[in-house]
Amino acid sequence: MPRNTVLNLLEMEPFYKTSLGAAYCGNALELTKKLPPISINLIVTSPPFALIRRKEYYNVDVDKYVDWFFPFAHEFYRVLRKNGSLVIHIGGSWTKGKPVKNLYTFELLIRLCNELNFHLAQDLYWFNKAKLPGPAQWVTVKRCRLKDAVDHLWWLSKDPYPKANNRKVLRSYSDSMKRLLRNKKYYKPNARRPSGHVISDKFYKKNKGAIPANFFDFSNTDSQSRYMRMCRERKVRPHPARFPLGLPLFFIKFLTRPGDIVLDPFGGSNTTGEAAERLKRRWLTFEEIPEYLQSSMFRFELPIV
Q1: Measuring CA to CA, which residue among 278, 301, 280, 287 is closest to residue 242?
Q2: DSSP summary character for residue 53
Q3: What is the pLDDT of residues 217-273, one digit of tens each?
Q4: CATH class label, 3-167+212-300
């Protein structure tokens, strides 16, 4: 399939394009409806969270969030290929006036699986080390709660066996693991651990790296990125809720192959598009606010008038 075929999935002019992808300005739901069925390999997105305080980029009241998201979810299911995946980055919310968490993220997950037949391939979590202490009322004033700094990453699939290969995302062995691999006396093959786990005789086989855990600690500090640098130079306010480039890079490597099509229907500053471009995947991004799309062009060194 030619690279620019991705541009033909929507019969309209993009806000901007590269050799691999295109960004469109418009309502995410209406644009997704225009996509043909089973045309997308991976959806990686960070939709507006359900927050107590209203944000400039628009967020939905927590008691309405699941119903608001469901029309999008129907379309996501329709456009995904059978072995495709949907990765949703979604933050939690607190109950207004009380030091207890709202359950909307779990309600959304359960309904997506029970009503739309998505499968929960795996639950993953992102620890944002740079996140400010909050909610302030309970963390820094009353001192009765801990800083809320972990977001959910729901990896959903249409089929129980989606395209995935963890060999593509192996990490370097830690120093302690390297020492363990050198000292083969510590774990005896076929010995039973206190947990009941039996050590395989293949334990000491040296692979190309360690399999990542389902917990990420990518920092969301991109102050030196081209995107942020150009925003400062052009005196443009950057998108206030960017997620780290490491997240879409990881999932695109893990869940797609070169030439696959990646969609981010809530594009924001188009972090997902940049990640896909770097990895030679075709991509589509939708964003309703033109100013965010305009500044996202900095990511691709495109001329901006």
Answers
A1: 287
A2: S
A3: 887 666 678 888 888 888 888 887 788 899 999 999 999 999 999 999 999 999 999
A4: alpha beta
